[in-house]
Amino acid sequence: MSDPLYRKDLLRLAADAAGAGRLAHPDASATAHNPACGDRVTMDVRVEDGRITELAHHTQACVLAQASAAILGAQAPGLRPADIQALADRVAAMLQGGPAPAPPFSAFSVFDGVAGHKGRHVCVMLPFKAVLEALSETAKPGA
Predict the structure, then answer these.
(1) How many domains does the chain have?
(2) For the chain, first and last CA: distance in Å?
(3) Coil, strand or helix: which one is 28?
(4) In terms of Cα–Cα distance, which of 59, 61, 75, 70 is closest to 14?
(5) Residue 48: CA atoms inside 13 Å, Cβ hemisphere, count?
(6) Could you list the residue range(s) of the whole structural domain that residue 10 is in?
(7) pLDDT by residue (tens digit) across 24-51?
(8) What's the Rg (C-alpha) of the chain?
(9) Where would I find the H helices in 55-117?
C-alpha cells in the first residue's frame, strides 16, 4: 500500500494494539470523541507519585487513532502529565510539518504522512485528549 496515511508500520502498530483493553480499577478514565467521524477513545490510567504506572485504552476508531493509542499504551507508563502534554505538543507540531518526536517517542514518525490531511490530525491527537483528561482527574482533590 503506497498511501502515506496507511503505511505498513502504522498498520502494524494499530494491529499490535499495545495497551488495548480496560483496567479493572483505574484511578481515572476519560473518553474523547470525534463527532466528525465517530472515533471514540477511552483511556484508563493508574498513577502513583505523579507518574503513570498503567495505561489501557478502549479504541473504537480509525487506524490512525488506534495506532496513536497503541504508541501511548506502550510508552506512557513512567511518564508524568507534563511529559504527556509535551509529547502531545511535539506530535501536534509534527502534524503541522515539524520534526518527529525524538526517541523514545520516534514511533510517532509513522504519522508524518498525515501532515497534509488536516482533518485527520484530530484522529492522531484523540488518544492524547483522552489520557490528558483522565490525568487531570487524578490531580483533583480526593482523586
Answers:
(1) 1
(2) 46
(3) strand
(4) 70
(5) 5
(6) 4-138
(7) 999 999 999 999 889 999 999 999 999 9
(8) 14
(9) 63-75, 81-95
